[in-house]
Amino acid sequence: MIEQSKPKVSKRMLIGVALLIIALLSIFVVSKVVTAPDFNQETVNALDDKKVTVMKLAATAAASSTALSLLPGDVATPIANQIAELTTYFIVILGAILLEKILIAVVGYLTFGFIIPLACLLGIIYLFVKSDILRNLAIKLTIFGLVIFVTIPVSIKASDLIYESYQSSIEQTIETANQNKEDIDAKKKDFAEEDKNWMEKIGDYISNAASKIGNDISAIVKKGEDTLASFLDAIAVLVITSCVIPIIVLIVFALIIKITFSFDSAKVSTIFREKRK
Q1: pLDDT, tens digit, 9 for 90 and up, residues 208-260
Q2: Radius of gyration of the chain from Cα atoms?
Q3: Which of 18, 100, 174, 205 suits 25 as a labelling partner, its CA being 20 to 30 A distant?
Q4: 245: CB partners within 8 A, 6+ apart
Q5: Average pLDDT in the 126-151 region?
């Protein structure tokens, strides 16, 4: 009987040492590798490029709103106000991008610096205590840590695939908005010249000038509407790629964790029922 128990003890010790080595490697090697700047450099660069694009859109929107608000009268003021209100969306998108950058750095350290070592520690304790609760908790922590480590890069990659398809249209939006702003500024100078000539001219000239100014204002309002529509399209793409897609990926992985843990819990419950019988 004594000779039969020795292999079990040695095997237990061997598994315990292996788990300890995994925990130490996770803390002192893997956690440093996954948090190194070079490890996630490509992902960070993609987020930085998106951030620059959002800031360009925000600056262009502010300039367009200002140009429209300075037109004579209040004809373009409603459009100018609507464009100015888009700032809130740009702030939300920038916040989402910043959060993704923080999570990339934190999640790897959290997974391999704490979660995996804790799971290994629970596994070592289980070898001597033989509690199914400790074993199940160790397995669940390992799965949870690996899933959250993979979730952020996967969500960003999925977002980038969609964003790349619309990147040219977003850049076109910036160019169009800038061109429209230049046209509006040019028309404002024309309005100033017409205002000076009104005091010097009378009759048909005044009527023609007024008609021309009315047409010009209508054209400018149309340009303002086109600019607003372009900004809305760009914001829709950015909200989907920066906010919606990452949330959907998180939900999908959360469901995977839930299904995995549910199956595991059902299996454990079945084992307990069979033992009771």
Answers
A1: 444 455 566 677 778 888 888 889 989 999 999 888 988 888 888 888 777 77
A2: 31
A3: 100
A4: 155, 158, 159, 162
A5: 86
Instruction: Copy the structure tokens of residue 131.
Output: 């509690």
Tokens read off for 45 = 């660069």
